[in-house]
User: Which sequence fits this backbone?
């Protein structure tokens, strides 16, 4: 069989409760355990069969698939055996997601930070955020489920601060009936650029006064009492798709991540969960020989996971926090639904990689905005969450947590254009006081008028062009030839 053909291997998936350990078959929509209410991880009971092949086999297979023209293997399902390997080829939804570029930091920025690092630009996914990875898997599963049960209508729903709603609406629009998309947003807490995306995809967009956590409680109640497809990271199929970030990272670095420090914004904790799970799977198969180090990053305005890990193990108690206004809107979550997954996977990560394998860094809002602007002034396209990661790297360096021969990879979860409003507030010094952000004047930028409107009057096109050229030459201190 050609390595780029669709795989013949099939897995046997089960929902595994992280609270009471109960297990449930995968052929229905489940988000929380009916017994204890805890969240699930999905487990492939046929995973041990994959160990019949060594790491070299899997590295060669995944590298060969990089050349595939089969769209079912072009996206996140290049790693089919590691994701949802009960799907058939006709189930897989592909919109060009995954395999986003790793871009080395500009030399001047590397010099200023003091460590080699790169951004993985997940803003170059179809809906301009990392959420497309999870949606590709979740919607492929929904296609399989609708076909399996012969359902004629399924309402997909999510709470969102922007990126989840954009991705969910996009994939629902592409798949079409029997799927319909509804998104619930916290009123006034989503940028105009982000709210335009689900509207453009034709979703029913509903706004609720409050914050993301309020919206999340509503959709959780709906999922518990009504037959709807919840698409937040409480959905374990979403987590599977987002594991692809770890697989792509390892592949990009030639399957050697020994000295790599990965910085990930925590938010609802689904992405950091998925990334840890992905690296652990690669290690279990011998695809990589050592784990990278994972640094979760949280703003001090929404930092429940940081607070949990900031105290000695015996003193740790999980407590949600009330969030304050944050520029890292996707991370402005005080009670992340995936925290139980983080706790379990962090323990496994530390058991495999040592005490320093998983850590959480806190950053200030001012640092997030300064870092985002600084990154983009050096040719990057980082969102505020990408700024959060750079601020996390700078704080980790200051604390002596990274250094030596290590290198860092920062997760820019979305495209900078989604957060251009925050850039405008930074440049114009118009942040509301609750953010606590003031611009660094050396990083500020704004358009400047070259000629007044009255200069145009009475001039021919040529005369006006010459006057403008002369004014520009004077402004730039150009020398005549």
Assistant:
């Amino acid at each position: 069989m050609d390595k780029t053909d669709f795989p013949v291997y099939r897995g046997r998936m089960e929902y595994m409760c992280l609270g009471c350990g109960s297990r449930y078959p995968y052929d229905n929509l489940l988000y929380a355990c009916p017994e204890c209410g805890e969240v699930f991880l999905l487990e492939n009971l046929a995973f041990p069969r994959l160990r019949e092949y060594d790491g070299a086999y899997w590295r060669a297979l995944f590298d060969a698939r990089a050349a595939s023209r089969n769209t079912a293997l072009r996206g996140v399902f290049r790693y089919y055996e590691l994701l949802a390997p009960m799907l058939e080829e006709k189930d897989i939804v592909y919109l060009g997601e995954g395999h986003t570029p790793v871009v080395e930091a500009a030399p001047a920025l590397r010099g200023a930070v003091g460590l080699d690092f790169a951004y993985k630009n997940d803003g170059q996914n179809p809906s301009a955020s990392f959420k497309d990875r999870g949606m590709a898997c979740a919607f492929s599963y929904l296609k399989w489920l609708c076909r399996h049960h012969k359902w004629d209508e399924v309402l997909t729903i999510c709470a969102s601060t922007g990126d989840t709603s954009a991705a969910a609406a996009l994939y629902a629009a592409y798949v079409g009936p029997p799927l319909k998309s509804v998104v619930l947003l916290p009123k006034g807490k989503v940028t105009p650029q982000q709210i335009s995306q689900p509207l453009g995809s034709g979703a029913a967009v509903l706004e609720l006064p409050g914050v993301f956590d309020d919206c999340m409680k509503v959709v959780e109640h709906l999922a518990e009492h009504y037959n709807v497809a919840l698409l937040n990271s409480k959905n374990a199929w979403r987590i599977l798709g987002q594991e692809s970030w770890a697989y792509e990272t390892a592949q990009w670095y030639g399957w050697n991540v020994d000295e790599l420090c990965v910085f990930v914004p925590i938010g609802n904790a689904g992405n950091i969960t998925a990334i840890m799970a992905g690296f652990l799977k690669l290690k279990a198969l011998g695809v990589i020989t050592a784990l990278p180090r994972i640094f979760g990053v949280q703003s001090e305005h929404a930092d429940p996971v940081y607070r949990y890990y900031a105290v000695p193990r015996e003193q740790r108690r999980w407590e949600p926090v009330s969030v304050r206004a944050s520029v890292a809107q996707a991370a402005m979550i005080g009670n992340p639904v995936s925290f139980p997954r983080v706790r379990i996977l962090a323990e496994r990560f530390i058991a495999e990689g040592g005490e320093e394998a998983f850590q959480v860094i806190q950053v200030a809002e001012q640092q997030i905005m300064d870092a985002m602007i600084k990154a983009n002034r050096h040719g990057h396209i980082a969102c505020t969450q990408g700024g959060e990661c750079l601020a996390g790297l700078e704080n980790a360096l200051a604390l002596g947590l990274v250094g030596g021969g290590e290198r860092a990879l920062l997760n820019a979860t979305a495209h900078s254009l989604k957060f251009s409003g925050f850039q405008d507030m930074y440049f114009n010094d118009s942040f509301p006081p609750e953010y606590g952000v003031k611009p660094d004047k050396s990083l500020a930028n704004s358009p400047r008028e070259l000629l007044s409107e009255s200069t145009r009057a009475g001039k021919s096109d040529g005369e006006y062009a010459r006057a403008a050229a002369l004014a520009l030459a004077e402004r730039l201190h150009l020398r005549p030839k």
Remarks:
- The chain is about 40% helix and 15% strand.
- The CA atoms of residues 183 and 361 lie 31 Å apart.
- The chain has a mean pLDDT of 95.
- The first strand starts at residue 13 and ends at 17.
